[in-house]
């Protein structure tokens, strides 16, 4: 059965989608952008600050659903510029220091609200 995941510890959806959906022991987290969940504003700073906020938001959704970063099996990182890849990777690696998930990273033309990065995540039990 499909279960919709919603937490006030991560930004509310800014469109017609759920923060996450769980089905059959797999959690699908919608692409997260670097919004502060309290102010719903983009965090100040560059790619590292934005990546850190996104991963904090993902952590809040994982926790709400009863998962954690060890359960993440796949991430997709969408970057506004591949020149930010190395700096993003430094922060990303702090959250996935062991048994990192599979991952893809792409540069895209633009992202919602002009952010530098968006990350979608899949976790499984």
Key phrases:
single chain, globular, 60s Ribosomal Protein L30, Chain: A, 6-stranded mixed beta sheet, alpha+beta, 2 helices, 24% helix, 29% strand, 125 residues
Distance between the termini: 15 Å
What is the CATH topology assignment? 60s Ribosomal Protein L30, Chain: A
Mean residue pLDDT? 97
* Residues in helix, %: 10-25%
Spatial strand arrangement across the major sheet = 1-2-3-6-4-5
CATH superfamily label: RutC-like
The major beta sheet can be summarized as: 6 strands, mixed
Strand content: 25-35%
Domain tally? 1
Q: In CATH, what is the class?
A: Alpha Beta
Radius of gyration: 14 Å
Topology:
Blueprint lengths: L2 E3 L14 E4 L2 E7 L14 H19 L6 E8 L5 H11 L6 E6 L9 E8 L1
Parallel strand pairs: 4-5
Antiparallel strand pairs: 1-2, 2-3, 3-6, 4-6
Kindly describe this structure:
The protein is α+β, with helices and mostly antiparallel strands and 125 residues long. 24% of the residues lie in helices and 29% in strands. The chain has a single domain, classed as 60s Ribosomal Protein L30, Chain: A (2-Layer Sandwich), CATH 3.30.1330.40. It has 2 helices and 6 strands. The chain has a 6-stranded mixed β-sheet, covered by helices on one side. α1 runs parallel beside α2. It is globular. The protein starts with a strand and ends with a strand.
In short:
Helices cover 24% and strands 29% of the residues. With 125 residues, it is an alpha+beta fold.
């Amino acid at each position: 059965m499909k279960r919709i995941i919603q937490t006030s510890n991560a930004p509310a959806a800014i469109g017609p989608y759920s923060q996450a959906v769980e089905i059959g022991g797999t959690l699908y987290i919608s692409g997260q952008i670097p919004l502060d969940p309290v102010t719903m504003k983009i965090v100040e700073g560059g790619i590292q600050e934005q990546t850190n906020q996104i991963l904090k938001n993902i952590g809040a959704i994982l926790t709400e659903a009863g998962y954690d970063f060890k359960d993440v099996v796949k991430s997709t990182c969408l970057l506004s510029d591949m020149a930010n890849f190395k700096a993003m990777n430094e922060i990303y690696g702090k959250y996935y220091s062991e048994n990192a998930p599979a991952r893809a990273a792409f540069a895209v033309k633009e992202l919602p609200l002009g952010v530098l990065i968006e990350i979608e995540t899949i976790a499984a039990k």
